[in-house]
Design a protein that fits this description.
The structure holds two protein chains of two kinds.
Chain A lengths: L2 E4 L4 E4 L4 E3 L1 E4 L5 E7 L5 E7 L5 E4 L2 E4 L9 E3 L8 E8 L7 E3 L3 E6 L1
Parallel strand pairs in A: 2-12
Antiparallel strand pairs in A: 1-4, 3-9, 5-6, 5-10, 7-8, 8-9, 10-11, 10-12
Chain B lengths: L3 E4 L2 E4 L5 E7 L5 E7 L5 E9 L2 E4 L7 E2 L9 E3 L8 E8 L7 E3 L3 E5 L1
Parallel strand pairs in B: 2-11
Antiparallel strand pairs in B: 1-3, 3-8, 4-5, 4-9, 5-6, 7-8, 9-10, 9-11
The chains are: A mainly beta, B mainly beta.
Amino acid sequence: GNSVTQMEGPVTLSEEAFLTINCTYTATGYPSLFWYVQYPGEGLQLLLKATKADDKGSNKGFEATYRKETTSFHLEKGSVQVSDSAVYFCALSGDFGNEKLTFGTGTRLTIIP
Amino acid sequence: EADIYQTPRYLVIGTGKKITLECSQTMGHDKMYWYQQDPGMELHLIHYSYGVNSTEKGDLSSESTVSRIRTEHFPLTLESARPSHTSQYLCASRGGQYGNTIYFGEGSWLTVV
């Protein structure tokens, strides 16, 4: 079945540091890949997505590239802010007939001023 | 902005009570999902539906039940709540096209005492 392996946290960085959160996946066919963010006390919000190999998703300074050869979808940001503190989830959705969303375990990110 | 709503947001109930968590979306999405999020953040799919009168069990066994009588409505019911049901429950929906975003509600925090 489909699975997502995500970098374990928690991760603590200083403001303006470079961020990478690793995510690799196992899936058959051609899954879509997502990063969701969860702020304290809230539900999940889509941060970015990519639906085919070599696609780059980007939003709010975050980027991730769908790498089929390494089955990866690492999240990066060049300069983090305190407001980026949240829990980040990597997820994949299978292709037709298998469209459930499978999540990684989540990475808690804390940015200190 | 996602138009998916969950009620109640927070609920504290006694053991043995019956509860229903409501989830509604106004986007006309055919696919809807319930996830359970444990205190360690991990998300588990407990129920999903691909349309009216279609419901399936998810990857994590749950004593809850769901129904899908209308497209926009996907309630989750616990007939007899127990402390082990204490968790956050997240409802989500998705349009029909492959690769489309799954939108989440803000979650229902359930505490059973």
